[in-house]
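User: Can you help me understand a structure? I only have the sequence.
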Amino acid sequence: QVQPVESGGGTVQAGGTLRLSCVASGRIFSINAMAWYRQGPGKQRELVARIFRGGRTYYADSVKGRFTISRDSAKNTVYLQMNGLKPEDTAVYYCNVVTQAVDAWGQGTQGTVSS
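Assistant: Let's start by predicting it. Here is the structure, written out as tokens:
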């Protein structure tokens, strides 16, 4: 069983920053990818950023140039540095961990950006 646990959410003003962390615990032999998704009020869950085992990254167009995904493989931890936050970034942010055996989700952490 793999359990991701997010932290780092909060409330900031527009233009501010937040740094999210996600630690994956459990029986983990090899992580194929770690990602951040988000679900804003009245919206569907969407992929924000993903980092693959080899280090390749993917970003949604809406966050390119503002958000940075990184990881500490030794600690099974992924981070999301969010700069230049906008009110439309307000959402619950979810961590997703994909191994050969499981596709696991965290409970989410709320990020709120006030105008």
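Now, to help you interpret it: The longest strand covers residues 18-26. The CA atoms of residues 29 and 77 lie 14 Å apart. Let me know which part you'd like to focus on.
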